[in-house]
Write a structure and sequence with these properties.
With about 1100 residues, this protein is α/β, with parallel strands linked by helices. Helix content is about 35%, strand content about 20%.
Length: about 1100
């Protein structure tokens, strides 16, 4: 079946911001799909609100709309662009739900748009829990005992019929949002209430619990001819009860017999046929009872999923690309495999290696969040490792996680050293349970007992025990002699790192000692190909992993080449923005004739796509792993400034080992990152900075704080995402905060500086070649200084700063860049207070704002910076004039994960908490800000009731907010103190009781009744009261927009007023960037 010729223009819906449960795997899949469809001659229209993606680059699609992903926006774009088809299966649950809503509105029928990839009835059968169950019963595939409910009362009745414990699974959600496990009626009522709210169609499935069963996933593709391919089988190391996104997973499956696997494979194909998926990929999840072999299907996703990205990277099979081609008419036997160039896509991949995925968590960012896992996903990122055996891949994954461990090592045990009752804690699904298992094995608890406590399969426990046994062997060997080569080789073959081995060989033994012994013994890694066919056919795509076996398949060329170090697993503070910069660096290197070599361990990203770079090494970003690749490839140099803090921290050790670090020098990086040296530079340049000093102890910090006066900001060196940055208002807070800063960056000085209250914060992205400077963008934060720049909304161009101040900011940044002799990108954070400009922080690397500024301005800063790092000058690149003024405004807004952490106070501070970002772009600040809020999930109302509550010092501006709202016809609800202030200003409001009084009605009562449509609430003091936290947390759980700052409140109300009066429209990015 050749491609369809009756369609010419296809619209793709992206996934929007990075959130827990839906991360950058959809940038990878969407980018791949855009390329595939354009290859076939189709015109591609894209909607996505995320500026940090390659997908939203103006060159990826023909027409790019950076707009909120809502049914209204999609319909407006359809009306303008008139596409022939809408493809919703590559943008996660967001795209699927939006497409279904658009279809149900009648807009597709009205404009003659066909839903391809998955029809509306297919989506409903897969996503609607009852329809899915009915389809499975007809297909002869067993489901769990369950009942669909529409109310909490129905949920209670269903649970009593099924018997506790039960699983609550909302329909049409992502990452298990709103789901949970209930062991009693109280838990059931609480979880099912949230689940009904989270569900698109307000239904929840109450299902029998299978906690402790084994969990498996199959990635399946099917075409119109009923060709079915199992792309990859994945086994969860953790048992059922933990969301698969939070589980350690392994591919291919390790513990099924061939007969069990074939039964599961056949069942997955029956599922595909029953649901009706015939033009794309799906993820089918199964549970298997290890006691009796009972197998049931749990759910299926009729779209490219998080596991699809993992399966693609694990096998080399480009699922998103194939899915896009199937959607436009091809069949699997007609599509060639890019890697082998001989086999068609209907050949099932075969793995002769093992792949392990490890999730990364960020519970430390959310005070009060319990690090316990369940059916609602909590992880913020993941790393993947490939090895010739499970133990090797598992240990590589652990060190690729970048959490301060070097494998299944002693430091990992130290993270759970404070646990007293190990057996009791092993029963709980803790986020660090894998660490606790190692401690239990070292304590002598039998593996069989640990399996009983955790539900882990004995096969995995045996592997963990073998790693521990090797550790004991390395310790027991004489420590006054070098390790026998045989022992060293045996350790390396199961994933032990040089650093990990050094720690086992006694005090004074360093990583460099083990490295020297290894190299002198001829022990070097070989590099094996990921080829989809276990070596049966030649592979043309150089995609490698390391091992200490014998066969080396690396293809070292004589070309001039450059290594690009990417950013590793997503985490708060270092996300997709840096992968974006690394992909542009690859493009720049290739344009200049270099062989571009990518090193990364993140399976979700565009940078680890098989055809992004000339060579891909899927390896952890550690000194040992990077150095091994450097010595194998012998490049002209390595670029460290694009992947965030991770590669930047490797700059000095790589330089000392003889690597050529391209771009800004390692010494300049150290000046910017080391708080003491940075302060000295700014003093030399005569630039203001808040009164400050660097300290190396808590005692020194106390003396500095008393000298400069409270409040003070505590800033560690060499950290990302504001890690351990805090504001201390007195001696009682200073000590613990400073200790935390030293823990975050041991051995480096901590900066104590005067906290500038009510200052306006500014971010500046600068491009410099060491002689000339180009200011890429100046961004004014909406919230005042004190909120991390990654969590604050910001606008470019600045929306209220005077031109003279902006010019002074640009001049100061230029002087800093030239003083540091920057060759590439520089980010400077500044504060403006009473007309004076202060330098807060300097980052000698790509910042998270680079993609946003690049989209807003049309200037690809990362690609240009990479060319500068490779020797080009700004003049040669045509950047001889200052950037032209933008006649539009772009607002970046943070997306926060508080809905995943019930009860956590959503108040922001110096430490970053957001997982992603969106952009609103339009002709003025008000419209751009409104779009950014809608895109971030803040559904700003046009009418209704607004709850106002403020501390005394905030009441004057809160009254002004109340006046503006009343003038638009809103009704006000307030607590007694705020209501009195409103009354004195002539404003009526409904007074609600305080929660602490226990009287009704209170604001939570009104929220439950759907009578509150916006919350504007500021903390009453530095330590928020429990009732305030409950109010803010309740608003988050119910999807009610909430504002907690003065500047945010004014921006929100002004935006609502503008849109009420003028309406809004959509406009393609390409139309903004075509300047007359």
């Amino acid at each position: 079946m050749p491609k369809r010729t009756d369609i010419h223009k296809i619209m793709i819906i992206g996934s929007g911001p990075i959130v827990i449960g839906q991360a950058c795997e959809f940038d990878y899949s969407g980018t791949q799909a855009c390329k595939a469809l354009r290859e076939e001659g189709y015109s591609v229209v894209l909607i996505n609100s995320n500026p940090a993606t390659i997908m939203t680059d103006p060159e990826t699609a023909d027409r790019t709309y950076i707009e909120p992903i809502t049914p209204e926006a999609v319909i407006k774009i359809i009306e303008k662009e008139r596409p022939d088809a809408l493809l919703p299966t590559l943008g996660g649950q967001t795209a699927l739900n939006t497409a279904l809503a658009v279809a149900e509105s009648g807009a597709l029928e009205k404009y003659g748009v066909e839903l391809i990839g998955a029809r509306a009835d297919v989506i409903r059968r897969a996503e609607d829990r009852i329809e899915f169950k009915e389809c499975m019963e007809k297909a002869g595939v067993e489901c769990l005992k369950s009942r669909l409910v529409h109310t909490v009362e129905e949920a209670v009745a269903a649970a009593e019929w099924i018997g506790y414990p039960v699983i609550i699974r909302p329909s049409f959600t992502l990452g298990g949002t709103g789901g949970g496990t209930a062991t009693n009626r109280e838990e059931l009522e609480r979880i099912s209430y949230g689940g009904l709210k989270a569900s698109l169609n307000h239904t929840v499935l109450i299902e029998e619990s299978v906690i402790g069963w084994k969990e498996f996933e199959l990635e399946v593709m099917r075409d119109r001819k009923d060709n079915c391919v199992i792309v990859c089988s994945i086994e969860n190391v953790d048992p059922m009860g933990i969301h698969t996104g939070d589980s350690v997973t392994v591919a291919p499956v390790q513990t099924l017999t061939d007969r069990e696997y074939q039964i599961m494979r056949d069942a997955a194909i029956r599922v595909m046929r029953a649901i009706g998926v015939e033009t794309g990929g799906s993820n089918v999840q199964f549970a298997l009872n290890p006691k009796n072999g009972r197998m049931t299907v749990i759910e299926m996703n009729p779209r490219v999923s998080r596991s699809s990205a993992l399966a693609s990277k694990a096998t080399g099979f480009p699922i998103a690309k194939i899915a896009a081609k199937l959607a436009c008419g091809y069949t699997l036997d007609e599509i060639p495999n890019d890697i082998t160039r001989e086999t068609p896509a209907c050949f099932e991949p075969t793995l002769d290696y093992t792949v392990v995925k490890f999730p990364r968590f960020a519970f430390e960012k959310f005070s009060g969040a319990e690090p316990i896992l369940g059916v609602s996903m909590k992880s913020v990122g993941e790393t993947m490792a490939i090895g010739t055996n499970f133990k090797e891949a598992y240990q590589k994954a652990l060190r690729g996680l970048e959490i301060g461990v070097d494998g299944y090592d002693l430091k990992l045990e130290g993270k759970v050293a404070g646990v007293d009752d190990v057996e009791a804690e092993l029963r709980r699904p803790r986020a660090d349970r894998h660490f606790l298992i190692k401690r239990a094995l070292k304590m002598g608890i039998p593996p069989a007992r640990i399996c009983e406590l955790t539900g882990f399969d004995p096969w995995f426990m045996d592997n963990f025990a073998e790693i521990v046994e090797m550790e004991r062997t390395l310790v027991a060997l004489p420590q006054d002699k070098p390790l026998p080569v045989e022992a060293l080789q045996a350790a390396k073959r199961i994933g032990f790192s040089d650093k990990q081995i050094a720690a086992l060989r006694g005090q004074g033994v360093k990583e460099s000692d083990i490295r020297s012994q290894r190299l002198s013994s001829g022990l070097k890694p070989v590099y094996r190909l990921v080829d989809t066919c276990a070596g049966e056919f030649e592979a043309y795509t150089p995609y490698f992993y390391s091992s200490y076996q014998t066969l080396d398949q690396s293809r070292v060329t004589d070309k001039k080449k450059v290594i690009i170090l990417s950013s590793g697993p997503n985490r708060i503070g270092q996300g997709i923005e840096f992968d974006y910069c690394c992909v542009h660096t690859v493009k720049a290197a290739r344009e200049l004739g270099y062989e571009a070599i990518m090193v990364n361990s993140n399976p979700e990203t565009v940078s680890t796509d098989y055809d992004t770079s000339d060579k891909l090494y899927f390896e952890p970003l550690t000194f040992e792993d990077v150095m091994n690749i450097y010595e194998n490839e012998k490049p002209v140099g390595v670029i460290v400034q694009m992947g965030g803090q991770t590669p930047l921290n490797l700059a000095v050790p790589l330089l000392k080992a003889g690597c050529n670090v391209l771009g800004t020098s390692a010494d300049s990086i150290d000046i910017a990152e080391d708080r003491k040296r940075c302060r000295e530079l700014l003093e030399k340049l005569g630039l203001r900075q808040p009164a400050s000093d660097t300290v190396m102890s808590v005692q020194e910090a106390a003396a500095v704080a008393r000298k400069i006066g409270y409040p003070v900001m505590i800033r560690p060196s060499y950290v990302l995402g504001g890690r351990a940055m805090m504001v201390a208002y007195g001696d009682h807070e200073l000590g613990p905060f400073v200790e935390a800063a030293f823990l975050a960056s041991p051995g480096f000085p901590v900066l104590i500086d005067r906290y500038l209250e009510r200052a306006t914060e500014v971010d500046v992205d600068v491009l410099c070649d060491g002689k000339d400077v180009y200011i890429g963008g100046v961004m004014q934060h909406v919230e005042v200084a004190g909120i991390h720049s990654g969590d604050s909304a910001c606008a470019t161009p600045p929306h209220t700063l005077p031109k003279a101040i902006v010019d002074e900011i640009k001049d100061a940044c230029s002087r800093i860049a030239l003083a540091l002799e920057v060759k590439g990108l520089l980010n400077v954070q500044m504060a403006v207070k009473d007309g004076d400009i202060y330098v807060i922080e300097i980052n000698p690397r790509a910042s998270r704002t680079v993609p946003y500024v690049s989209k807003a301005s049309g200037v690809p800063l990362a690609r240009l910076a990479a060319k500068v790092a490779l020797g080009k000058t700004l003049k040669e690149l045509g950047l001889t004039k200052p950037a032209a003024d933008m006649p539009w405004c772009a607002v970046k807004e943070a997306v926060l994960p508080f809905n995943r952490f019930p009860g956590v106070d959503p108040i922001l501070g110096p430490e970053m908490k957001s997982t992603g970002e969106v952009m609103g772009i339009d002709k003025n600040f008000e419209l751009a800000y409104w779009k950014s809020q809608i895109a971030a999930g803040q559904k700003l109302p046009n009418s209704g009731q607004v709850f106002l509550s403020a501390r005394d010092s905030d009441k004057p501006w809160m009254v002004k907010i109340g006046q503006d709202l009343v003038s638009m016809g809103f009704s006000l609800v307030a607590t007694a103190g705020t209501a009195q202030a409103l009354h004195q200003a002539g404003l009526d409001s409904t007074v609600v009781r305080k929660l602490v009084d226990g009287e009704h009605p209170n604001v939570i009562d009104l929220m439950k009744q759907g009578q509150i449509h916006l919350v504007i609430n500021t903390p009453s003091s530095l330590v928020a009261r429990a009732d305030e936290i409950k109010i803010r947390s309740e608003a988050i759980s119910r999807g009610i927009p909430i504002v907690t700052t003065e500047d945010g409140a004014h921006a929100t109300v002004n935006a609502i007023a503008y849109v009420r009066k003028n309406g809004w429209d959509v406009r393609a990015l390409q139309d903004y960037l075509v300047r007359k």
